[in-house]
Every structure is written in C-alpha cells, then in structure tokens.
Amino acid sequence: MTSFNATQRVSDDPYGPRGFPQATIVLAPWQRVAGWSTLALLALWALFDWRQELLVINAVFTVFFLLSTLYRVMLIDASLRCPREIMVGPEDLLEPPNGKEWPKYMVILPMYHEGDVVGKLVEGLRKLDYPTDRLEIRLLIEEDDQETMTAAKALDLQPPFVITPIPVSYPRTKPKACNVAIEEGDFDYLVIYDAEDQPETDQLKKAAVAFSRCPDNVACIQGKLCFYNSTHNLLTRLFTIDYSTWFGLCLPGLDAYDAPIPLGGTSNHFRLDVLRQVGGWDEYNVTEDCDLGLRLFARGWRTRVLDSTTWEQACHLVRFWIPQRSRWVKGYVQTYLVHTRHLWQLTKQLGFRDSLHFHLLIGGSVFSQLICPFYWFLVLLWLLFRPVGLSHFFPGPIFAMGALCLFVGNFFFAYTSGIACIRRGMGSLAKYALLMPFYWIMMSAGAWKGFLQLITKPHHWEKTKHFAE
Amino acid sequence: MTPSASQPTNRTRWLWLLAFALLVVLRLVLPFRASDTMLAHSAVVDSLLNGHNWGRQALVATLEYPVLPTLALLLARVVATPFPFAGGHLLVALCQAWTILYALRLAATQRQRLVVLVGLVYVGAASDVLDAFATADPNWVVAPLLGAVVYHLALWHRGRELRDAVLAAANAGVLAFAGLPGIALGLALLGGMVHFVSQTARGSQEERNGLKWLIWTPFCYCVLLLFLWNWLIMDSPFFLLGQLGQALRGKHTADIIETVTNALGSELGWFPLAAMLGAGLCLSPGRPLRTTATALTVGLLAVVLARTLSVALSLYAPGSGIVLSTGALGLMALSLAGTDWQGHRWRSALGLLVLLLGIVASHLFPGRPLVVEASFADGAPPRAEIEAFADQQWPQSRVAVYGLRPPAIYHDPQEQRFVARVDFHEGVFLTQANDEIIHLLLPPDDDRYYPQGVSPFSSMTTDGRPWLLLERTWPSGWQLWRCVITPERHSKLEGL
C-alpha cells in the first residue's frame, strides 16, 4: 500500500521542515531586514520632505492600480475570448475513460465542530454518481471533536463512507487533517470538499474524464464554486457575485494564459501520486490550497478548470464573513512571502511571464485591498470638500491615471462582476454588481484584519461558520 | 464553450495589425483639411495641458464639443509628441484606419470580399464621404466606436458570444460622450439590442434580465459621469444641458418642427438616404445580419433627427456627418456581407440599383454637405488688432471672452491678454473688474456663439450694461466693451 507521512521532517530547514518552503514563520531573515529597512527609510524621508515622499508613494500606488486594472482587463478578456474550461457532456460519462473501470477516487471532508451539518452532508454525498466500489469518502474528524464524532457515528455510516479520526497535534489546521487523511490508501484521484458542499452529482466522473483528456502534466482540476443561498440577503448576493467573478472569469482567464492558478478551498481534484510527491498541503499556511496550486505549477504541474459546480453555503452575516475573508488575505500574504523567499529561484522556476502573474494576482490583489480604503477616503474628500492641497499630490499624469482607475477601473470591476453573474446563469444578480464598491470596502476591512493578524497570530485559523439549513 | 470560430489566430492578428499600420501611414501621407472643430478642441486640449480652468470647463460643459473627441485628441497629442506630425492628424488617421479595418474584418468574417470593392466604389463616388475623410476633425473618434458596435453586433447576432454583446454595449455606451448625435446613436443601437434580446433570447428570463442590464449599464454610467463631472467642475450637474435649454426657449415649437421637417431632406443628403434604403431593400427578412442592419439603420435615422434638430436650434451636431458617412458605409458592408446572393438575386440587384441611383442623385441634387461644421472663426477680428486697440488707452489690459468658441479663437494658454471662462456670472465678472482693467469681447448675436435672444450676451450686444462702455464694433458684428468700474490701483484720482 502506498503511504505518505504527513509529519515527516525531511529537512533541518526551519522554514521548510517537510522539504518545501512552508509558512512556519512569517518572514525570512532577509525579508525582515528589507521590511525594517524600508520602514526606516520612509520615516527618514518623511522627516526631510514628507510632501515629496507622499507624492512619490502616491505615484507608485497609482501606477500599481493602473497595472492591476489592466491585468484584470487582460484576464477577463482572455476568459471571454478563448475559454479553455474543460467541458464534459453527459454522453461522455456513459463509459469509464479507459473503457474498463472508473479510476479509484478518494473524497476527503475535513470537519471541525460540524455536528449540525454532518447529516445533510452525508445525505448530499450519497447522491454522488460514482461506483461505490471505486470510491471512498473520508470524514476527517478531530479526535477531540466529540460533537461531530458523535453525530457522524450516529449515522451508522457504511462504505464508501469512512470516519478518519485526526489525532490531536499542532498546528490544528485543515491542511494538517488533509495530510493525515492521505497518508494511507491506493487511489488514483482525490478531491477535497467542505462540510457544507453540494457538488454536482456527476462531478467525480466529469473530473475523471477530464483527467483522461488532459496531458500528463495536469495534476489538478479545479471545479467551480458557487452558492446555493445566494439570494438570502445582500451580503450573500454580493458574495456570490464575487465568487462568480473569481471562478467564472478570473480563474478561466488564468487557465487561458496557462498561468499559475491559486486553488480554491474545495473541489480541487488531484492526482494522488502527484499530491504526495509534492508533499501535500502546508499545514502552517491558512490558504494552503493557494500555496499548493503555486507549488504544483512551480514544479511543472498544471491545473485546469472544469465546468462543474460545487454549491456552497455563503456566509450571510458580516461578523462571520469578515473573519473568513481575513483568513484568506492572511493566507495570501503568507503564500506570497513563502514563495518570494527565494525570489530569483521563483522567477527562474515560473519564468518571467508567469512570475508576473504570481506577483500581480497573489501580491497585487492583497495590496490593492489594503490600500483601497485610503483612496476611497481621498475620493470622498475630493467630492465633498474639494481641498486645494490635495492637487499637489495629483499632478497631471498622476491625476490622469488616478482618474482612469477611479472612473473606468472601478466601473470595469463592477461591470465585469455583473457579466460573471450572467455567464453563471444568474442574470438577476447582475444589477447588484453596481453595489460592489460597498463589498470592496468590507473586503478591505477583512484584509486589514488578516494583515494585522499575520503579525499577532500568524497561524490562527479563522474557521468559517456553517449554518444548518 | 468552445473558442469562437471567428477568433483570429496569432498570425491573422499580426496581419491585421500590419494592415492597420499601413493604413495609418497612408492616411498620414495624404492631405488633411483644417476645420474649426479641430481648432476648438485643440484649444481645450492646450488649456488642459496648461492646467487652466477654462480647459476643464470646456471639457465637460458642452454637448457641441463633447468630452470624447477632446480626450482622444489629448491622448493623440501626447502620443504624437516624439513624431513629426500633428496629434490631431494622428488621431484622425488612427480612427479612419481602424474604421476601415472593422469593415474589412466584417467582410472577412462573412467571407464576402465583394464588400471591399463596393466600399471603395462608394467612397470614391460619394463626394460627401471623401470630404469627410479629408477633414481633420477629432469627432472621427466616433467612427471606430460605431465600427466596433456594428462588428460585434454582427458577431453577437450570429454566435451569441457574451463577449461580443459586452463589447457592443460598451462601445455604444461610450457614445454618450460624443454629443447629441452620439447619444442619439447610442440610445438607438442599445434599444435595438434590447429589442433583440426580448424577441429572440433563447435563454431563461434570468439570462434576458442579465443581458438587458449588461446592455444599458455602460451607457447609463457614462451619462451619470457627465452629470458628475459637470457637478464637480461647473457646480451644476446639468450645466451641459443649459445651452440646449436656452436654445429651446429661444425658439417657437412650431418653428422647430417646421425647420426639422424642411431640413430632413436637405440635411440628410440624397446619398445616405439612398444607402439606407438600398440596405433595407437588400436585407430582406431571414437574412443573418438583418438585425444588425436594422439597429444601425434606426441608429442613423436617430442621428439624422438629432442633426436636424440641432440645426433647427442653431446648435452644432458634432460628428454627425462622419457618423452618417461611415454608418452608411457600415450598412453597405452589412448588406453585402450578409446577402444571400443565391436566394434573392433580384432583391439584391434592386438594392444595388437604388444605391447607384443614390450616388447619381447625390451629384445631381446635392444636399447640404454632410461634413458641414461649425464654422465660427470667420469674421472674428484679428487678435493683434484687439490687443493694439486695447493698448492705446489701457496697456496690457486683459480681454474677457466667454463660452467655447470665442476663447478657442482667442486662445491664450497663459491668459496674459485673454481671460477665458465657459460660464458667465455677472458678479464674478464685476469682482474681476475690481482687480484689473478688463474688456469684454462679445461675438455677434447671430446664433453662432450663443442662443439668440435668450442668452445674457444677446441683451448686452443690443442694450449694453450700466457698467459697460462700448469701445469698438467691427463690421462683422463683434464688439469690444470695457468695464467702467475702475480698479483702485488704476484710478485717475489716485495721484491727487
């Protein structure tokens, strides 16, 4: 039987005990030095000429905004111009891809304090259209999570369901549980779902067929995610629009460019042998899926997008939504910092073009969210009070670029969000896309929470709250 | 979803790019005819580059010299800086080449090379079109937008790819920045798109609702931006509609209707009318591109209406001649590209015959030229003469000019001798007069510079003001007034 040791330390490197760079610490020594040096320089500059300093910083930020906007235009245009999502029709699912038998599939479901939803989850997964003798569904339950364990045992689960207890050890994160789950077992493919997920019933077969159609270097297939409770309230509507844009336009755009794809949290279908070969998930990273997607790419493996949807539950309360968002942002920063520890090596591995994708998508999106509130504040200031001094920081070319981002860029983002809804068959949600600026403000709030938490509690896992329907 | 069959390969894309570059170079070599429209927009661009308030005001405050051509000219000027040709010429060359490219791509998409041939005949035969092509007018920026709308509409009606709908809607939306004809054209084209969605959408109600939102949103946003910019710069969101309102107040409804109905024939010109008719005849029901052609025909008729209404109100309809010329070209491209020659030969032949007759008619009974533009610099007294006159008594005193056209004629980037403002406020003028000796240069009350009879300048030219002294009147009707409120530092009594 093939095995994989999720806790094996293969290196003495404190930054990568399992043989690949991990988020065991936030900053590598040189990053720390560079960070403090930059701050010191900025402080010194401010003492001499703070106006000139602000002008230059503003110019840099504005150019960055413009580049980010152009990059997003490019991605979305590519997704609309030459969609590459793998389409598998019902007629393709009648026979196994090799004509004999369907590949062996492992489904893993990390759960923690999900006693309320475990019954519904099992009920949903029973609908999966896949031969049960070729399938194993592992419910990953922490040993001390009595609530979930009791609820799961009460269901008297039969194969393909298996309860996999996760021993109590640190860090207590979802990727750690996933790593433990893949330690044992001979399977061809693996998929990870969240506790509240409702994948399309033929998704496993579609993924198996998709793998068979893809070249050998495709190690992962990302399903699309959407929300089944999108019309619950305004937040869920905006959240759905956000998801539709990400999974319906941005990821297909990356796919079209054959660029590194940061995986979404669930519905990632892997070739299990490759997953083990690259070391599984980084248990210290709070967006381990994003990190894994990039690690796969850096090692020459590719990810493709499958046109099959997993329906999730959108968080409908701001007080739970913000922590979830903060974890994502924290994880993106972790991932960015981990992968830029060896910047030159990363550029060599990815190539110039794909490393630009990495910087703009992973670093750029977080950076945008962090600095956006300041610019929204400036816009409000300008609209309401029109302070004369502000023009000093916006000389002609900077003003032109800034105005372009403000009037065209923001509209573009909102408009394309609406397009994403239409593309996902949710046209009635499109009109809410014009309210996305309010959602972006919330995103920035989450980003700042995540960024600050990276300093205070870098490995704290803000668990997403799921609600029983 | 599979990649659209019409998506060009990399090689084809490079070929199109090469063709585009060649067309641009060719156009730059050919001569340009100067226009007052270019003069006005250039003045606004100069002022913007110098950071003056008049430039900002002129950018957003009028429908006659709309924001889109000005911004396009500004961009072209910046791009053309290192090159030995004018930015305005570069803009026109780029736009014309781009428009032609759209017609060629449409023809290539439909696998009908004939359209190229007929298009060349059309351009050669119609003097209006040639004249429009020769004119250096920044409103040419509207032509590639129209080309993009038609091209993507045609693709959308055929393949139903969302990207084409988005691009058609976005390009039509930007037309809101192109003055009254642009707004009319955009509204008509988008209305056509929505009608098509309502009538033929195969998808669910959900999809139809989404598509309608997708179609209208860019246009509405652009209109909203116009109001926002007017609020920010002119302190009134509806300032740009003020001139239109004044013009409407200054005319009787019956007169407007009469002028419009009388003007329709002559304003439209025979040729575009014939082209539209011919296209309509060619595009019998059931043809693949008939919906696009119908939307375009309705759009062009809307432009004709906007143009004649503008003429009736003595307003300049920017780019309407260009839109009508290129629109007719687009219609012809569509009708020829979409024509099922095998099935409807007699109808196609009839359409072509009408087109031919139209060409002949356009020469026999020439209507008012389509390229007719706001010619406003004629008759204006020379700048040096005004300065010399003012210097006789008040050396280095400044002259206030208001609106858009007079400041464009007497454009003074440093505002050393001519002070320009778009809006006139008596209080502000008098405050200025308290600081310096100031003259007021008033153009004649002939509807060319401000609405006759209703503008405050109308009464000034006839009755003056208690604080104004008429110093000189030119034969063309231009008047130079001086404000008699003497600033303290200029007081003749100061030395006593």
Secondary structure blueprint with pairings:
The complex is a heterodimer of chains A (469) and B (496).
Chain A: H1 29-81, E1 105-111, H2 118-125, E2 135-142, H3 146-154, E3 161-166, H4 174-181, E4 189-192, E5 198-199, H5 203-213, E6 218-227, H6 234-256, E7 268-271, H7 272-277, H8 288-298, E8 302-312, H9 318-339, H10 343-350, H11 352-384, H12 396-423, H13 436-456
Helix pairs in contact in A: 1-6, 1-11, 1-12, 6-12, 8-9, 9-11, 9-13, 10-11, 11-13
Chain B: H1 10-29, H2 36-49, H3 53-60, H4 67-80, H5 87-109, H6 114-125, H7 127-134, H8 142-159, H9 162-174, H10 179-200, H11 205-234, H12 242-249, H13 253-268, H14 270-282, H15 290-312, H16 320-338, H17 345-364, H18 383-393, E1 398-402, H19 405-409, E2 418-421, H20 426-435, E3 438-442, H21 456-463, E4 468-473, E5 479-483
Parallel strand pairs in B: 1-2, 1-3
Antiparallel strand pairs in B: 3-5, 4-5
What's this model, at a glance?
The complex is a heterodimer of chains A (469) and B (496). Chain A is of the alpha/beta class and 469 residues long. Chain A is built from 13 helices and eight strands.
Taking pLDDT < 50 over at least 5 consecutive residues as the criterion, the unreliable ranges of chain A are: none
Largest interface, and how many residues on either side?
Answer: A-B, 27 and 27 residues
Our count of helices of chain A gives: 13
How many domains is the backbone of chain A divided into? 2
- Average per-residue pLDDT of chain B, rounded, comes to 82
How do the strands of the widest beta sheet of chain B line up side by side? 2-1-3-5-4
Average pLDDT reading of chain A: 90
User: Could you tell me the strand content of chain B as a percent range?
Assistant: 5-15%
**Can you name the CATH architecture of the largest domain in chain A?**
Alpha-Beta Complex
Alpha-carbon distance between the two ends of chain B: 90 Å
Rg value of chain A: 23 Å
Helix and strand succession of chain A? HEHEHEHEEHEHEHHEHHHHH
Report the structural category of chain A.
alpha/beta
Question: Could you describe the largest sheet of chain A, including whether it forms a barrel?
Answer: 8 strands, mixed
Helical residue percent of chain A?
A: 40-55%
Strand percent estimate of chain A: 5-15%
Domain count of chain B: 2
Task: Quickly give the structural class of chain B.
Answer: mainly alpha
